[in-house]
């Protein structure tokens, strides 16, 4: 039972996972279905499912609310994600490659890893207004503070021998980083990117609390205002599923691109 | 081919581990290598022989002045950083895990220095030739993780040889290999050297390895390293087990052991004899 290295079959693993999910669903159904907890606080799973169906159906204007919300949130996450990678990876690589640049910039980056980024939102609203610029900036800031230190650590984790070897073979400093250290750090940089995008999914609702006309966060916020708890749960469910799909596909891409990492 | 490596009164000091005071690792080493051959630097582990070798390659430790005093001359010119005449082969062979054997050997050609020096049309033939020479001709597309320890060391050797260096610096390259693989690698090195005669400086703590391979064996005493004595061995290579058991080899071996014991009085370190 307690052996961290025990090998279990895929079947056993899936079965155990299913047990946990079914267990939670059973308790949830019992609590809600038997009215132990009031419907206003805890809608039953089937009510969430039906809310999900209703939201997905086209309304009288022929639009699916859920679809529009998902599409809007997805666009925001992707846009911010691209910005995070484009700015954060080069910065992290520079900091990892040069202790001087790291000493200069780490006081500006590291403290924000534990800063209450959500509390920064009102400031961003004051500075950037309530439009898309503010939302994108918020998502970017929330994720980039995780990405940069992770990328830096990925570069520093590459054994020194590879740098020394490249230098001995006549590489310039830039060549030693670009051709030797950076390629070796790529799998861990990919891990950092996966974390950054996961963080964005957790922040998307916060970003969309303020004046979003459409989006999953707005959908949840709106439903809460009308005490439609089934819709709140439906919105949360969709975000979890989207985050999971993003995560799993990014991990799959990483494994496919860097098969050598685990060899 | 003319080649000359000269170490003049090399001293190397490091700050001691407790941060107070300094430790002298190399103490006034003088060495001259002036013709192609296999030259062994033999000493107990941790005696500073690696430090001496790295100085020849221009690989400097971070954060200290290196050498503390003295001069390294390559072909009469002072050497103060990595230079293109010498290529190092490390014990932790440091092949790139994400590249195939072929691409590992091709790695130096990504660098501007070798791009300019070796025409693009020549590279492919050179890479295949050298991989075949080290016995990896059928493993071009294998990644390091798909190769054994010995094959990885062959690959590291191929990566150095593809540049046809005049000076090859080997830092206990076979130290991590099992006995049989090590013997195979020693034979390979002898063969390769016959084909491509360069100046090899080979660091080892294995007396048998030194006797098998060396045109000259330089004994370093331990902590700090000083040149205790140099022996020339004229027996042609490959040297047989029979020669290793000859009176000449036995006499050399016991002299070397005596020297190392003397040196050891001053501090720890181990040598290996596998005869």
Task: Describe this protein with a few key phrases.
heterodimer; A: 263 residues; mainly alpha; MetI-like fold; 2 domains; 10 helices; 75% helix; B: 275 residues; alpha/beta; Rossmann fold
Summary, kept brief:
Chain A has 263 residues and is mainly α. Chain A has 10 helices and no strands.
Strand content of chain B: 15-25%
Major beta-sheet overview of chain B: 6 strands, mixed
Global outline of chain A:
globular
Question: Structural class, judged by helices and strands of chain A?
Answer: mainly alpha
Distance between the termini of chain B: 34 Å
Biggest interface, chains and residue tallies: A-B, 22 and 24 residues
- Rg of chain B, rounded, reads 19 Å
Could you say what the CATH architecture of the domain at 5-85 and 165-264 in chain B is?
3-Layer(aba) Sandwich
Alpha carbon gap, first and last residue of chain A: 28 Å
Description:
The complex is a heterodimer of chains A (263) and B (275). Chain A is 75% helix and 0% strand. Chain A is an all-alpha fold and 263 residues long. Chain A has 2 domains: 41 residues; 220 residues, MetI-like fold, CATH 1.10.3720. In chain A, helix 3 runs parallel beside helix 6 and helix 3 packs across helix 9. Chain A is globular. The model of chain A has no long low-confidence stretch (mean pLDDT 91). Chain B is of the alpha/beta class and 275 residues long. Chain B has a domain of 181 residues: Rossmann fold (3-Layer(aba) Sandwich). Chain B is 34% helix and 23% strand. Chain B has 9 helices and 10 strands. In chain B, the strands form 2 sheets. In chain B, strands 6-7-8-3-9-10 form a 6-stranded mixed beta sheet, with helices on both faces. In chain B, helix 4 packs antiparallel against helix 5. Chain B starts with a strand and ends in an 11-residue tail after the last helix. Classes of the chains: A mainly alpha (263), B alpha/beta (275).
Q: How does the SSE layout of this entry go?
A:
The complex is a heterodimer of chains A (about 260) and B (about 280).
Chain A lengths: L9 H24 L11 H12 L8 H33 L1 H11 L11 H8 L3 H25 L3 H9 L4 H37 L6 H10 L3 H29 L6
Helix pairs in contact in A: 2-10, 3-4, 3-6, 3-8, 3-9, 5-6, 6-8, 7-8, 8-9, 8-10, 9-10
Chain B lengths: L4 E11 L6 E12 L3 E6 L6 H9 L11 E6 L2 E2 L7 E4 L11 H6 L5 H6 L2 H14 L15 H13 L5 E5 L7 H17 L3 E6 L2 H7 L2 E5 L6 E6 L8 H4 L2 H18 L11
Parallel strand pairs in B: 3-8, 3-9, 6-7, 7-8
Antiparallel strand pairs in B: 1-2, 1-4, 4-5, 9-10
